[in-house]
Write a structure and sequence with these properties.
This protein is α+β, with helices and mostly antiparallel strands and 196 residues long. It is 37% helix and 24% strand. It is built from seven helices and seven strands, in the order H-H-E-E-E-E-H-E-H-E-H-E-H-H. The strands form two sheets. A five-stranded mixed beta sheet has the order 5-2-3-6-7. Strands 1-4 form a two-stranded antiparallel sheet. Strand 2 and strand 3 form a beta hairpin. Helix 1 crosses helix 2 and helix 3 packs antiparallel against helix 4. The longest helix is centred in the last third of the chain and has 16 residues.
C-alpha cells in the first residue's frame, strides 16, 4: 500500500450502520436492551483491530544506529494478535526474529514490537504476516539475513469446522544469507533454540 492510497481515518458511522445491518440480517434484534450500542462498539473495536491498514512500517527505520555489531541479533517471543481475513476470527501467539546486521546497522528493540503490531493490525494470514515482517526488516535495515518464526493459535480452527482445540500453527520466513547459507541458517535457528 502506498502513502497516497493509505486511508486516513475510519468512517465509524458507516461501519456502525453496516454492522447494524449485518446483525439484523442474521436475525439479531439490534434495538433490544443491551444491544442498541453494539454496532458502534463493534465499529470502534474493528477500527482499532485494523489500525495497521493506516500504519507505515517503513517509518520505523528512521532512527537506526550504527554499532560495533557483527553477530546475530534476536528479539524473541513478541506477543501479537491479529484477525484472520477468511472468517474475521482472531489468531494470536508470538513472533521470534533473528537478523544479521549489515555494517553494524541495528534498530532499537522496540521497533520490532511496533513492526509486528503494525502488520498484525490488519486482516491477515499467518503466512503473509510472517513474510511481511521478514521482508520489511530485510529492506528497512538492509540486513544480511533475516529469520522470522511465528507461532499462533487460530480460533477459526477451534470455533468452527473441525473444532481442533489445542492446535498450534508455525510459519517461518528466511531471507538473505539465512535462506542461502546453511551455516548461517543453522546459527539463526540455534539462536531460537531450534534446529534448521
Amino acid at each position: 500500500m502506498t502513502e497516497q492510497n493509505r486511508p486516513t481515518a475510519p468512517d465509524l458511522d458507516r461501519a456502525a450502520a453496516a454492522m447494524r445491518e449485518f446483525l439484523a440480517a442474521l436475525g439479531v434484534d439490534t434495538a433490544a436492551c443491551g444491544i442498541e450500542e453494539t454496532p458502534m462498539r463493534a465499529a470502534e473495536l474493528y477500527a482499532e483491530l485494523f489500525a495497521g491498514v493506516r500504519g507505515n512500517p517503513h517509518a520505523l527505520w528512521a532512527d537506526t544506529l550504527i554499532e560495533d555489531a557483527d553477530g546475530l541479533v534476536a528479539v524473541r517471543k513478541i506477543p501479537f494478535h491479529s484477525m484472520c481475513e477468511h472468517h474475521l476470527l482472531p489468531f494470536f501467539g508470538t513472533v521470534d526474529i533473528v537478523y544479521r546486521p549489515r555494517a553494524g546497522r541495528v534498530a532499537g528493540f522496540g521497533a520490532f514490537t511496533e513492526l509486528v503490531a503494525c502488520y498484525a493490525a490488519r486482516p491477515q494470514l499467518q503466512e503473509r504476516l510472517t513474510a511481511q515482517i521478514a521482508d520489511e526488516i530485510m529492506s528497512g535495515l538492509d540486513a544480511l539475513g533475516v529469520l522470522v518464526l511465528v507461532r499462533a493459535r487460530q480460533l477459526c480452527m477451534t470455533m468452527r469446522g473441525t473444532h481442533a482445540h489445542g492446535t498450534r500453527t508455525a510459519t517461518a520466513a528466511c531471507r538473505g544469507a539465512f535462506g542461502t547459507d546453511a551455516v548461517q541458517s543453522a546459527q539463526a535457528w540455534q539462536m531460537l533454540g531450534e534446529r534448521a
